[in-house]
């Protein structure tokens, strides 16, 4: 990864900043900041949205006294196209040509208008192949992000997506309960959700799937059915969610979206089992917006019969005054912290 230890996460409806280091296998967080009601940066292509978003970023750096410097930028999976593929070990020129051909098969835009990022996740000398992460995004989007960073008084070190940042975090800090099979990490975003399969034995992500359902869909269902505003819907999901003992049957209202989550997870489990020849799934871990939906983990566990919980990494964390204000919400910072490592 790049030299900078500071990341700027530009979410679809939130902005986060993290400054972190890996100190001998323990995570030391030097700075954390978050604004959950930021301008919808990706929805509009205007100078005003860049100015409004840069003002939010500047205030976060000033409020939390984070030195302005070069940052690693993390953008949502929903703004990119990703694949993890196995390829034969080739000479550099042949490898790039093969990857461009592969990318052209899954990217719904002209390749000459695309920014491609490649990361070799694993090199298997015994089988003479490589595991490669391909991340593609529109060049116009990357330019817009870089313009925003510059307007915020910062410099761009790199731009990556959540998959790349999360993969780095997990490969460094996640300790599976068993070395058999794998674990699935459920990154619940604002408009989409990404599923990552983590190979427990080799400590790396080997498969991914993103689908069109996220936190915003649960918000819309709550607002429409109960006729409440967004602020009240956010509070209801956080305080009531899928609770059994509540005067409000929010669980019934949210069931259509829950069914989508469960169906997509079940399809992904079957897919990795087929792809990796009977690979089992030991655990599911939820993060990002999952922290804002009470008892979502228990609902998924009941449906798929696999141990499911919010991803808790406090055991590898150095507890400091910087961390304490966010201690109950740390699972929402996996992407920005991963970007800082």
Automatic annotation (TrEMBL):
PANTHER family: CELL DIVISION PROTEIN FTSA-RELATED. This is SHS2 domain-containing protein. It comes from Candidatus Roizmanbacteria bacterium RIFCSPHIGHO2_01_FULL_39_8. InterPro entries: ATPase_NBD (IPR043129), FtsA/MreB (IPR050696), PilM (IPR005883).
